């Protein structure tokens, strides 16, 4: 039961490691009238992603697991799509973020369920916090382009 949980946590970690660079890509390449707003928001998001990467890796270590800690492995595991190094409109940036955040929500929900089933309340609590954060972020992103 916990084997599936830890595999899923490592997959989540790999996706966040890739997302960290992807958020920089958008931070650098976003264009348009919303540049200043999105540029700043994306910096906030990659800073938060760095904290989450560290917390997830350290939780895996605390339960005796080996977190993915190199990009080659992370890319082999990751399922999120990266972006080309080219300008992207504000609209496409936000639409892409919404799609990724919806993905993070599905992933964190699944990890909470697996952690509950494995009797790992600490991991369930940790990912429930992320879930709440992502749900709030999704609402804000949708409001931004409404
Ligand atoms: Fe910057």
Automatic annotation (TrEMBL):
Pfam family of the protein (one): Ferritin
Species per Swiss-Prot/TrEMBL record: Phascolarctobacterium faecium
Bilayer-spanning residue ranges: none
Domain of life per record: Bacteria
One annotated GO molecular function: ferric iron binding
Gene3D superfamilies for this protein: 1.20.1260.10
Similarity remark: Belongs to the Dps family.
InterPro entries: DPS_DNA-bd, DPS_DNA-bd_CS, Ferritin-like, Ferritin-like_SF, Ferritin_DPS_dom
Domain Ferritin/DPS: 8-145
Listed SUPFAM superfamilies: Ferritin-like (SSF47240)
Lineage, uppermost ranks: Bacteria, Bacillati, Bacillota, Negativicutes, Acidaminococcales
Name of the protein described by the UniProt record: DNA starvation/stationary phase protection protein
